[in-house]
Amino acid sequence: MRILFAGDEHPYSAFALKELTRLAMNTWADVTLLGVQAASASPRPVAPALNLALNRYRETFLNSWEGEDSPYAMSNWQYEWTPVTENLWEERLVCKSGKKDFRVRLRTGNPAAAILSEAREDGSDLIVLGCTRGGECLWAGGTGVPQRVAAEADCSVLLVKEDQPISRILACLDQTYISQESLEILNQMVTIHQADVEVIGVNPEGGLKKEVYTRLIEVGDYYQDRNIKINTRIVEIADLESLIAGEGQQDLLALWMGKKSILSRFFPREWVGRLVAQGQTSVLVMR
């Protein structure tokens, strides 16, 4: 599993880093920390505030493990060629993590576009990013960054609301194929937060569809086999938005939005962005 964490120097990113660390402890994923700043003519590669934040995130993440238990321990020394000027390269001794890949990167330009490009080029399975709490969902320095990333990413996205506790997970599914990876990501979130789980079967039209009921049973069996208790219910797809809007503020809303998902067909990707912007909860979009 490869996780991309996108952060800046604001408190919501520090809060999202805690979620990344918990996930990494459980999954031993390959991890990339990405900072994004506006393009500048300055020769300095990274703005001081962002540089300090990335340094702090790196140290906080790496120091979350004790001693040699960390798969990200920086113990692998090797020589690499590094560009110095346009026609000059220098061989330098660098240290990398031993068991699992851990990197810190910087991109310049539009934040949402930079995050999406990094995820695509790096082959990320999950993007983790934070935003301001409640219904604002802001990312400083860019308009609609969390909304666009959640709506347009090809991989799964975990959007963490600042200082938003999670006590229940609402997982919305339809009758389409549910990947093993998405089940495991949801399982990790349940384990991390010791959260209650409610699986909502989304019915595409009037009358109970056998496929929706079958999928509910399959997902229920998966979690019960892992000693995770869940509740289930069925809703009509026309009632889904009002149901989501009326739920509590200490929930994680999980949506299966694969290419063949009924949710993807009934609700365009812009709906995901609107949901992220207006909702009070953290959101996990699974693809």
From TrEMBL:
Tell me which residues make up the UspA domain.
2-161
Matching entries from SUPFAM superfamilies are given as: Adenine nucleotide alpha hydrolases-like (SSF52402)
Name-wise, this protein is Universal stress protein
Specify the taxonomic lineage. Bacteria, Pseudomonadati, Thermodesulfobacteriota, Desulfobaccia, Desulfobaccales
